[in-house]
Design brief:
By secondary structure, the protein is of the alpha/beta class. The chain is 37% helix and 14% strand. The protein has helices at residues 16-33, 58-69, 90-98, 114-119, 137-151, 169-180, 209-214, 237-244, 248-252, 274-277, 284-302; strands spanning 47-52, 73-78, 104-109, 125-131, 158-162, 184-188, 204-205, 218-221, 259-261. The strands form two sheets. It has a five-stranded parallel sheet with strand order 7-6-5-8-9. A four-stranded parallel sheet has the order 2-1-3-4. The chain is globular and about 55 Å long.
Amino acid sequence: MSLSVKHLLGIKELQTQDIETIFQTADNFKQVLQRPIKKVPALRDTTVANIFFENSTRTRTSFELAEKRLGADTVNFAASSSSVSKGETLIDTVNNILSMKVDMVVMRHSASGAPWFLAQHIDASIINAGDGTNEHPTQGLLDAFSIREKLGSLKGKKVAIIGDIMHSRVAMSNIYCLQKLGAEVVVSGPPTLIPKHIDAMGVQVEYNVKKALQNCDAANVLRIQLERQHKPLFSTLREYALYYGINKSMLDALDKEILIMHPGPINRGVEINSDVADGKHSIILDQVENGVAIRMAVVYLLSGKRELPE
């Protein structure tokens, strides 16, 4: 059980077999999470540093829980309360942490490409927990894993990614992961939030959300990332919700049932209504649960361990 890469910097760098190995390992760890004692001492001699230069709740908590379930020691670092605020560079910050004998670094950064830059300068394994608008690989993995869990396979399935594609690292990782596993991807949303030439990635573009829903097996709904938009790209949130928000009546009008997903945080009443987020189509909480198993698998596999613990 091993990966072809030393770091998890992005889905783009993974081979299809790497993804399958991660999924198989996550299947085993998900069984561990169903036990009364939800821990295995697989990484009790490993120290992991969680270095977050951007705010995070779900991803950071999920990584911390995954590491603790594996028995690893964790060091949590927040840029807002560190020497970064005094002008310390990224490399100096990480090298100072590594001097404390840290084996692995989980990093989120606002700059696209920061994990790649870091991987060229340090020896520890790097896990990208989101870099700018580039990629969020563990989110892409857990989303695909959640679809596979419900539908049995990704091959030949059609997945719609709806919302702010332009600013979404989740969208990019989902596209790479789903395509490697044989799924067809359609992106949908306002024209101003769909990157130009995205069809060159082999995805279909559909500006009519109702058509996108009708033709998919699963829909991953993304939030509007106002914090990354430097100019208005649509008139109002109310107008966005009216034309692109997912509501129960839209799903009831379909001639089939589809899966509804969301990576969080949810802006209820904007990109998705509560009756959809909490409804029968939703697997949002399954995504959260699967996130711990996927991150356990990634941390374990990058640690270099060769046998799964019982």
